[in-house]
Amino acid sequence: MIQAPSKPRQPTVAILVETSRAYGRGLCSGIAEYARNHGGWNFVLQERDLRGGIPEWLPGWRGDGILCRISDTSLAEVLSQACCPVVDLYGGMRHPSIPFLDTDPHAVASMAARFFIDAAFDRFAFCGFPGLWFSDARCEAYVGLLDGLGFGCEIYDPHSTISSGDVAARESMHPEGSDHLEAWLCSLPEHTAVLACNDVRAQQLLAVAARIGRKVPEELAVMGVDDDELICELTNPRLSSIKPDTRGLGYQGAHWLDRLMQGGKLPITQLLLPPVRIVERASTDVIASTDPVLVRALRHIRSHVHDVQGVRSVVEAAGCSRSSLEQRFRRLLGRSVRDEIIRVRVRHAEILLQETDWVLGQIASSCGFATASHFVRIFKIQHGMTPGEFRSCHRKTSQTGC
User: Fold this and answer.
1) Looking at the domain covering 292-393, what would its CATH class be?
2) Residue 131 has what DSSP assignment?
3) Overall pTM > 0.85
4) DSSP string, 48-115
């Protein structure tokens, strides 16, 4: 009697990732997607936060692999002695024997700086939790990038003796902000663009701003990182935030673990993925210019991204001559009116390519391009690749890290 071939055994994988925040849940979604696409895994998952410590069952556990967010040295040491492969999705401890993945701080800094500069800001500030590794990395990248572009950056530095590396503890220490944070925010000049190290810090900034009477976004524009929708929607005004590629990080981390569980080796042991995009909300809905003509023109371009009409409609909305408007754009933004229209349209197209399955004709129409072929030509000039190649590259990066 011929026996049917047996199914390959499904591996059992432990997930030590905090599920209390959107970042951790996004990682878990990427892990689950990879497992579905590769025969299915059995998971050991328990509710936890970054201060979850070492689970009692972990030292004697005999599973096939572990995906984790290592937040303290004790957990790092236990996991480094595990009898199965381990992949870290945090990057804070960076144990030499455990490969890790994280969000690229330089890409975060570049995305924020580009956004603020495009909105005509020339004053910048960074507010983080000094001494926390991810905050310091984002601060260093942001300040360095702005310095290279000829801009200064005010840095929040309480000169305190707090040395705790416990993220949750530092975040909860002053949930509504401290006196020092209040004084620092009070000292910032009007039309300052503030990047916070994460959404929790940005939420604290908005609470302090409301308490001392500083208007956001009219006086200060504030942006967070992580795009935790619950936090962003509960702030007043609603918080703009940089959306990390948590799904891609989870997917790639699971791919690494799968390779290790099968006895393979990794070509690299460290990977930083860029964020996806900025999710714009009310906290940055401002153009930092005292020139009302420029403000009217830029608002018209942003709110009419779907229109095929070009420079003429912007000139009419601005209420001045074309030559005068072009001079303003060149002097204050360093580009022409047409260049700004194209920039806004292409940026909108990037989002649709990443987040929808629309065909090129739909995207072209939604972004104000007369035809799909015109859209493809302009997009290729801007990016050096076609929209289809951009979409494929983004999806490949999210799923394989390549």
Assistant:
1) mainly alpha
2) T
3) no
4) --TT----TTSTT---SEEEE---SHHHHHHHHT-SS-EEESS-SS--TTS-EEEE-HHHHHHHHHHH
